[in-house]
Amino acid sequence: MGTRAPVFALFAVLAAAPLAAGAAETARPVRTLSFDLDLSVAVLSETPGGAVEPGRQASVVVKGRIVSGPPRQTRGAGEAAVKRTFKAQGSIVVEVLQATDDAGLVVDVAENAADRTRPKVRLAIAQDGTLLYDPKNGENLTEEELAVARWLARGFFGDHPTETGTAWTVDQSAQGRTDVEHYKVVGHDAQRVTLDYTLDEKVAGVTGYEASRAGSLVYDTALVVPLKANFETESRRQVRGAYDTTHTTIAITLTSDSFGAPKR
Q: 75 to each of 81, 83, 151, 190, 242, how far by Cα in Å?
């Protein structure tokens, strides 16, 4: 698949010296994949103390004089809560630009869905699923785009047996960040396997973040591509004195692949 070079070195070159506008427009990907996306998101924002009404001294007028009565009690639950929800359908498109001699990939990924549309972002995908991208583009990548990119890693399934019960762990924890995935084969048929899948993430600190995810994945071991995935994620983070809890339900289905991967 094209001229090869180490994935991270190649990505550094592409990021530092991107193609000229005309060349970028005419460059043809070596593989293009499209996924249907169906998602729902519910965000609960809680502010400690935000719903408390302090007690105040009650006063009455008696014969022209103001007389203080007994104090009123503090009222409120001690926490203000606001919930926001939305549902959307759309697509994720991945353009594979380059394969590398260390089994990596360089890809462009973009998402198009109501209230979830993200611009095209360039990623390097190492053989083990490690992702590299410009940090300033972090907010332009959704959890479902990152999941798809990891599953496109050329070593994702590797030489694991396809027999039911086969299980393994991918631990990419580093620098105080926990990032652990667990996979288990629950079914197989020809070149497809069905996997149970969980993820645990945690970042310590004042602006810390923690998330857990569970779901399933149907994967084509021959063409190295996810065919279908369904998962739910529960995450919690602190945002300026408030705590946001986000519940996301995501369904992803491969609809087209220029390499001819089965659709279902």
A: 16, 22, 51, 64, 20
Q: Which residue's structure tokens are 């006063």?
A: 59
* CATH number at 7-50+80-257: 2.30.230
Return the number of other C-beta atoms located less than 10 Å from residue 133's C-beta.
Answer: 19
How far apart CA 153 and CA 239 sit, in angstroms, is 33
Indicate the Cα dihedral angle 11, 13, 19, 23, nearest 10°. Answer: -80
CA nearest to 24, candidates 108, 94, 101, 91 = 108
- The whole-angstrom separation of Cα 236 and Cα 178 is 14
- Contact present, 60 and 28 (Cβ < 8 Å): no
Question: What are the average pLDDT values for consecutive 10-residue runs of the chain, which has 264 residues?
Answer: 52 48 62 97 82 49 52 54 90 96 96 92 96 94 96 96 97 91 96 97 83 97 96 89 90 95 61
Partner residues linked to 230 by β-bridges: 216, 251
Give the start-to-end residue ranges of the domains of the chain. Answer: 7-50+80-257
CA gap 154, 104 in Å, rounded: 7
Are the C-beta atoms of residues 215 and 232 closer than 8 Å to each other?
Answer: yes
H or E element, residue 22: helix 21-26
Residue 146: helix, strand or coil by DSSP? helix
